[in-house]
Design a protein that fits this description.
single chain, about 240 residues, alpha/beta, Rossmann fold, seven-stranded mixed β-sheet, about 20% strand, globular, binds S-adenosylmethionine
């Protein structure tokens, strides 16, 4: 099993789940893997983009998986209380208007149902810019998106040997893409706390790339007013519960 599927099956009451919804399923690899493995459950997967990879993978989708191209901020197509479990992996940091997503997720869960998600990387961590952040040739220095202005970062990328086209593509991606919340850990947690959910568990994940020199640069020129504590954390594993 891939690590995303393993994470989902770690959900404490996973064995009892009958209907589950994956938010932001991407290539649908996890939804397909879980549906193939757990025939006693019905999975639904939504994403507001059905990528070429998703369409290719979905040719082999099993019958206990329903796929929908849909926005996570509006789950009106599902009846209230329909799911036992909603889960997402590396999606929450992409959803702007998180309040809407949480309110809708709460509505489609049955009383006692859970939203189980892993969120990373937060905008407020070393790699929160998301631009080729898992690639060795990433041209963005850790934390630079938090302490350099857009123009300064674009210039920095050019000064370090990339073409102006590459630099422009990078800053356009970081600052203009609509599917990135650009929220740090504290703001995200504040929105979750204001939602109707009860936080059953919130496990902060430390940023293994945390660097005091980079953090000091952010604090010296803190463009987004990131709280100092946020710089320590890369992500969070979270269990939200709908009241019984
Ligand atoms: C980083 S990818 C993660 C994909 C998959 N969960 C995985 O772990 O491989 C984020 C996914 O969330 C989707 N997404 C972002 N905002 C969304 C929204 N408002 N509604 C539905 N899907 C969204 C994107 O299209 C993308 O497929």
């Amino acid at each position: 099993m891939g690590w995303q599927s393993k994470y989902v099956t770690e959900f404490p009451q996973f064995a009892r789940v009958k209907r589950a919804l994956e938010i932001g399923a991407g290539g649908f690899t996890t939804a397909i893997e879980l549906s193939n493995r757990f025939h006693d459950k019905h999975f639904h997967g939504i994403d507001f983009v059905l990528s070429d990879l998703a369409l290719k993978n979905l040719k082999a989708a099993p019958s206990n998986l329903t796929v929908l191209k849909h926005d996570a901020r509006d789950l009106e197509l599902f009846a209230e209380g329909y799911f036992d479990l909603v889960y997402s992996v590396a999606v929450m940091e992409h959803i702007c208007e998180l309040e809407l997503h949480l309110a809708e997720t709460y509505r489609v869960l049955r009383p006692g149902g859970s939203y189980w998600f892993w969120q990373a990387p937060f905008w407020s961590c070393s790699l929160g810019h998301h631009y080729r952040h898992s690639k060795v040739d990433c041209p963005i220095p850790d934390y630079a998106h938090l302490h350099m202005t857009r123009d300064r970062l674009e210039m920095h990328i050019i000064e370090n040997g990339s073409t102006p086209e590459v630099a422009k593509r990078a800053v356009d991606f970081i600052y203009d893409r609509p599917d990135l919340s650009r929220m740090g850990r504290t703001d995200t947690r504040g929105i979750v706390e204001s939602s109707p959910f009860e936080i059953a568990e919130w496990r902060d994940e430390v940023d293994s790339r945390y660097d005091p020199v980079g953090a000091a640069r952010v604090l010296a020129n803190n463009i987004y007013n990131v709280p100092e504590e946020d710089l320590l954390y890369k992500g969070a594993k979270v269990h939200l519960k709908k009241k019984d």
